[in-house]
Each structure stands twice: as C-alpha cells, then as structure tokens.
Amino acid sequence: MTMQSTGVERSRSEAGQPEPATGNHELTVPDELTVPDESTGPDEPIVPDESTALAPAAALFRALGEPARLTILQHLFTGEHRVRDLTDHLGLAQSTVSAHLTCLRECGLVVSRAQGRASWFSLAEPERLHGLLAAAEHVLAGTGAAVTLCAHVPAPREP
C-alpha cells in the first residue's frame, strides 16, 4: 500500500494491519526523511510519524520495562525452561508468568516449543539480546544509575 501524498511505501503496521508474528523483529530508523508535502513549511523539520515509525521500538522497550520480564529473560539465558520452572524461580502465579511470556514472545524475544502438555521457552536471539542489555548497562553506567542487568548472562562466544 502506498501513501498518495508522498509515494512512500507503508508497512502493514502503518496501514493499521497487524504484523505477522515471525519472531524476527528488527528496529529500523529511517536514514532519509520523507519528501515535504504542502502541509510542511520550509523551515519545519521533516520527521516520520512517531506513532508508526517508532511503534516497534516502543513495544520492545515496554516489554523490557517490566522487572519480572527482565528477570524471566535473565533466567532464560541459563537455558530453556518450562513455565513451571519460571514460576518456582520467580514466586509468581502461573497465569502471571504465562502473560509475561506471551508478551515476550509477541515481541520476538522468546520462542516456545511444545513437549507433551508443557511448553518450553528459550531466548529467540540470545546474542542480540545480550548486546541490548549490555548497551543498557553502558547507558546506565554513564548516567550514574548503574545496575547489573547481565549478571547471569554469559558473554557471547566468538565465532
């Protein structure tokens, strides 16, 4: 689908359609700005519509903004776990842990596989997630609010 005013192709989320759940979400920030139309004055900056262009990033940071979800991710760095394992570790209700895992799966951060009646969860892309958490630690250290986000996270192996 294209926008008639600028001729720029729109994504499914911009068109109000849900993106398919592929588990392979990448954040992108446009390198070039859109062509001005009649509503943009000559001195006004041209920026993408924040509600659509930044929506994936906002969803990712909302998912990471819940301490219980960060704890789940940290625990999954040690390996694959069942919901029951995570409820025992976190001391939360099964329904609460399941809701957190659903959020993390919808954001493409975790994947699951069924084995009998149990679902086993693991990190979708451990190396990228480790990099993201390490970057957050770096930013927090620079602001004087250092915490240990990656305490249980081994550094990625060199290829």
Automatic annotation (TrEMBL):
Pfam families: HTH_5. GO terms for molecular function: DNA binding; DNA-binding transcription factor activity. Residues 1-49 are annotated as: Disordered. Keywords: DNA-binding, Transcription, Transcription regulation. Residues 49-143 form the HTH arsR-type domain. The keyword Cell division does not apply. The keyword NAD does not apply. This is DNA-binding transcriptional ArsR family regulator. It comes from Sediminihabitans luteus. The lineage of its organism: Bacteria, Bacillati, Actinomycetota, Actinomycetes, Micrococcales.
